[in-house]
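Example record for the data management plan.
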Amino acid sequence: MPPKTKPFQAAFQGELGAFSQEAAMRLLGPDVLVRPCQRFDEVFQTLRDGKVDAAVIPIENTLHGSVHENYDHLLHFDHRIVAETSVRIVHNLIAPPGVRFKDIRRTFSHPVALNQCLHFLAANPQMERVPFYDTAGSVKMVMEDGLKDAAAIASAVSATIYGAHILKRSIEDDRQNFTRFFLLRRSDQPELKLEEPTKKGWKTSLVFSTRNQPGSLFKALSAFALRDLSLTKIESRPLRGKPWEYLFYVDFLGSVEEERVKKALGHLQELADLLRVLGCYRA
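Corresponding structural encoding:
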């Protein structure tokens, strides 16, 4: 008999049923095994230590901006971005079976999720807003504790996983609420066979720093402008050990295999104190 292949496993932050799990399934298929972690740094460490084959992390939300901690981890760990996806965030009011809407006096969820449902919560002032470490984790908690006066705000998948009941669907304030996720692999791992490129083709992410001199950022970005490379994101983060100096994270459309991208990176290398390509992946 042929040897059994090891199931592909991906780490993410949160409990089973988190939006990161949905992103993992979109990126790797519905049969992927997932490994929940409590913290983002634990996700990166789990991949580094070879305990999983990949990791899925949120990097930005259309309403609340970037996940700054994960930008920092991308610099400090030797992982590469190999794919991205976006998930629309749909929040639901979830309670144990038998608990009625009029019984709810406390609502648990991650602070970001609570802030994304302010209109609903304002219309129901009888519900105390209680911050919790995770959306899906709040569903798990109200079920395990058998709370009769409480509900959680989380994904519909989490209700199914923990056997809970959805009292109100889609209670988020803004339906244009999306979170972008990265799929990460260690730099020493082989390429994954994923879907074909979209019409936008390829995207590259990198981080660089420049000297704190007049015009240095302008000159650095000219490396892309002179070659008609479209920037889709730029994010600055403090450069530790050098107060008031910054790292710049950039996403642009293009592949590192393109001649114009090679020239842009060579140009930027001449201007930057630090330059590291974080990944080249299908847009």
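Summary line stored alongside the record: The two ends are 40 Å apart (CA to CA).
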